[in-house]
Specification:
Oligomer: single chain
Radius of gyration: 18 Å
Order of helices and strands: EEHHHHH
Number of helices: 5
Number of strands: 2
Structural class: mainly alpha
Strand order of the largest sheet: 1-2
Helix content: 55-70%
Amino acid sequence: MKIYTGRGDEGLTDLRDMSRVSKTNPRIEAYGTVDEVNALVGVVRPTGHDDVDDLLREVQNHLHVVQADFANPDPDEADPRVREDHVEHLETSIDAFDEELDPLESFILPSGSEPGAKLHQARAVCRRAERRAVAFAEAEEGVNESAIVYLNRLSDLLFTLARAVNKREGVREESPSY
């Protein structure tokens, strides 16, 4: 498979059904930003915490499913789709890691250890991916709502993981001063 084809040189790209759309199309913006999240999650790994790394590996695979889901304007039963159980898995993981943490009493600054700060950065980009996905859903019918919910829940997971990693590494959370 050749890496470059020249097909995108004029600002168009192929969707899964081989239709062509502008690279600025809300669909492309949505799955392109999901790709950014995936790359940032890859930068975080390895965190030095096997349970976190195993979960992040799963998340990266799920993010490929989100991208495939968004790239397909006419999915059928065999196509990759984000399902409710993907979201439930994130919720279960959030609850498990949250048990390690002190209750959150105020906003915190997105910082900490190197993996903690990178998880906060991935969370911020995940929020942008969610906004792009919402814009895509507003522009087109039939967008898989579970994929948007997944991104919302993923940002919560990344926040929780950042806090957990920072706590494990002995880094104190800082609240903003107003």
